[in-house]
User: What shape does this take?
Amino acid sequence: MNRPSFLKNTKKKICLICEGFEEYDYILRLVNLGVWADVYDFTLVNAESCGNISARYQDRYQSDNYDIVFAFCDTDRRPEEGFELIRTKINRIFGNDIAADKVIIFVNPCTMQVILSHFGDVNLRTQNKKKNNSEIVRLTGLKSDKCYDGCKEHRDFICSKITVENYNEMKKRIAKLSSTYSDNPSTNFDYYLNLFENSNTDWIDEVNRKIES
Assistant: This one.
């Protein structure tokens, strides 16, 4: 992704393909909080399901409108067929077997593991919203006549409680998790958070060299 010389001093454009509404709303909250370096311009895309991620990724990557494109998703249910398929398809876009490891931001078992880490220690074992409801209520104070179901009202309530202060607490908590995607729980999100906070943008060119070689 070589940018014309007259654009070199502009912000680096990062596109994040978000698996669904939870991921999209959560990342949007972080962008709006301004916790990442202001040398980046983030564009978010809601894929609306894991099955749409690779197609959305390929479309945004091939548009050449961004300096780099990432996917942000869950590892999906065992045996992780959905996640493995996303990895395979993204590797095929680049014609190698390393690209997915560089451009997929994952959370096992689900993004709620990271979201709840803003508020306290948690180790989710499932994506099932009903099974996770007690932890969601405990850590966020969500009050509802029904279990958490990912509706807009619930998402808005939880995202409104995310602050700069508990963002830093979340970082400390998820840094303790495994970064191997088959482990439960696990995530590589903290690695990318450090990149997004870094005003030195050289890492983007380095990643692109690796995935496009």
In short: The chain has a mean pLDDT of 93. Residues 81-94 form the longest helix (14 residues). DSSP finds ten helices and five strands in the chain. The beta strands are 12-18, 40-46, 68-74, 104-108, 186-187.
